[in-house]
Amino acid sequence: MKVLVAVGSKYGSTREVARAIAETLETQGFEVDFSDASDVRTVAPYDAVVLGSAVYGGLWRRDASAMAKEHKTDLLARAVWTFSVGMETVVVEGQPKDEAYGISDRIGAREHERFSGAIDSEKLNIGERALIRALDPPLGDFRDFGAVRSWAEGIAAQLAELAVS
Predict the structure, then answer these.
(1) What is the pLDDT of residue 90?
(2) What pLDDT, on the 0 to 100 scale, is given for residue 92?
(3) How far is CA 112 from the centre of its chain?
């Protein structure tokens, strides 16, 4: 079974999460291609797609959301999972969810997972630094690669079941 793991990442933190997903799927015996979402021209060769993006202010990166929109019909015909990486991983009842949930629904994703990310203030531009000062979020690397690999193993188990069906 051939799987595409595609990602929208600005500074590389989300790309590292996607790479861990791809590597986990490979260790489970799947043929995996890893790509930036902006480089994906077709999903036709793949049986399954894992699409993820960094989240800023509740929004996915344009390259990831554009990939979902451009390939919607083909994604609907495949097994798809989505993930987001950002600093707010708690969804409070009654609060609007970020746009990833709408994107996931539109492309028929089986599941959407949220992971904590990393903020390295040295990599931020002037506007982003000002926003960080105003919001005062915790700075540092909060990614949990154990949780990322566990989620990818769950995808692998579902893919294995699909292969037998």
Answers:
(1) 47
(2) 47
(3) 8
pLDDT in the model for residue 97: 62
Contact criterion met (CB below 8 Å) for 99 and 61: no
Q: Report the distance separating Cα 74 and Cα 51, nearest Å.
A: 13
Domains contained in the chain, CATH given: 2-164 (3.40.50.360)
Strands 48-56, 31-36: pairing is: unpaired
Q: Which amino acid appears at position 110 of this protein? A: R
| Rounded Cα gap, residues 86 and 30, in angstroms | 27
Q: Where are the beta strands (DSSP E) in 21-87?
A: 31-36, 48-56, 59-60, 79-86
Which ranges of the chain have pLDDT less than 50? Answer: 89-92, 95
Specify the pLDDT at position 93: 53
Distances (CA, A) of 73 to 107, 110, 111: 8, 15, 18
Asked if 25 and 3 count as a contact pair (C-beta separation under 8 A), the reply is yes
For every residue of 138-149, DSSP letters joined together read: PPEE---HHHHH
pLDDT of residue 99: 84
